[in-house]
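Recall the central idea of this unit: under ordinary conditions, the amino acid sequence of a chain determines the structure it adopts. In this exercise we apply that idea directly, starting from the sequence alone.
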Amino acid sequence: MSKIDPQQFLLIIGSMKSATTSLFSLLAEHPEICPSEPKEPEFFSKHQGHRKEIARYEDLWDFDPARHRIAMEGSTGYTKFGERGAAEAIHAYGIRPRLVYMVRNPFDRIESHYNFMRRNPDWRRPITHPDLVQTSNYYLYLKDFGAVFGPENLLLLDYDDFVRDPKQMANDVCAFAGLPEMAEIADASARNVTEKPKSELERTLRRMAPGLVSQSPDFVKRPLRRAMEAIRPDKTRLTSAQRQQITADLAPDMARLQAEFGVDVARWGF
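Accordingly, the structure predicted from this sequence is:
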């Protein structure tokens, strides 16, 4: 039998590129929260290549019942397009988690998602691909998870609020999880910030010689990194036409997001 009660789980389920890594890192400093290893095991995802292959979900934690009250993980793949059914899979496993979901300006999120994925030399999709656009369809995933676990077990957060006051947001999550506030937070700076996408030359070099940079001596590594950084292309931004198309695609569910969850979508242009 697991030493973690089904109601002791806290899942940060998304959205991708909305400061979930930063929030996870802050909450991991709480003495009564046990973070998973890795942060995004994707145990209940079907199509995430980085899914942690492990037999028992509970084995993701070094959980000590004497000091831990919450087992936390942060798989944003549960709310990516193509992973519909994650909520049902979590429920079928037998856990009853508290769920945290962070929304962000959908256009900013899509751009960040796209530039992050371009770091993979084998990734070739347009910025308007449904995998990117529909991951910003926040209503879709809130509806799915709310229907399975109930709205009382779902905490909706805003990326802009996190940027303004990360400590307050971390403590909001603590209150939601039934934990005391964190007296101090050692580091509230952003984690997992998307760097500039790699150039075609850099992609080729890294594909042909994966350890070229990391395994080189420092006197070679530093100038090599500087040279690669210098030829990296600028981050891609959505064009006006692309924004208009995405607005049309997302508008119906953005209206529902505002009506049912009180999110001000007008500030995003909807």
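The radius of gyration is 20 Å.
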